[in-house]
Design brief:
By secondary structure, this protein is an alpha+beta fold. The chain is 20% helix and 48% strand. The chain has helices at residues 27-46, 75-84; strands at residues 2-8, 11-17, 56-66, 69-74, 97-104, 109-118, 121-132, 135-147. Strands 4-3-8-7-6-5 form a six-stranded mixed β-sheet. Strand 6 and strand 7 form a beta hairpin. The mean pLDDT is 87.
Length: 153
């Protein structure tokens, strides 16, 4: 065990740092989370908000910069955004999405990094997932607009 100091209020505090253990995650947890991520990609492609609760927890928050300003949206606002968005599916756009990273904190919490095209914008999303009543749901979404000047695909 190592110790490290941290300055807090002008005082030096000591805390213990231990090696982290890998969570005991089995193949079914990985498969179930991967399936949930695909459901998220489906939602981004078809914007069918009748399935929003199958992807996001009702208390989820979304944060990211749009037009240089930090946005913070609760689920009712995000539902309205998706309802008004022209879906890539409605214009027969080719799907473009990929999983970049999956990290399990435990069998009930994970973080993923994904890239997804929505019409002319490409997003990199950091999604926090919790397994709630046996279902993986997004509880937090941090989004970054990677590009927005490409043609719709």
């Amino acid at each position: 065990m190592a110790t490290a100091g941290a300055a807090h209020g002008g005082k030096q505090e000591q805390f213990a740092m231990t090696k982290t253990r890998e969570p005991a995650v089995d193949g079914s947890s990985v498969a179930e989370l991967t399936e949930a991520i695909e459901t998220y990609f489906d939602l981004m492609y078809d914007c069918d908000t009748s399935r929003l609760e199958q992807t996001f927890a009702p208390t989820a928050q979304l944060h990211g910069f749009r037009d240089g300003k930090l946005m913070a949206w609760p689920m009712p606002v995000y539902r309205d955004i998706l309802d008004k968005r022209q879906s890539p599916k409605s214009v027969n756009a080719e799907r473009a999405d990929e999983i970049l990273f999956i990290d399990f904190a435990s069998t009930t919490q994970a973080m993923t990094k994904v890239r997804v095209r929505v019409n002319t914008m490409v997003f990199v999303d950091h999604l926090t997932w919790h397994r709630i009543d046996g279902t993986w749901l997004i509880t937090s979404k941090g989004f970054h607009v990677e590009s927005q000047d490409g043609p719709p695909i």
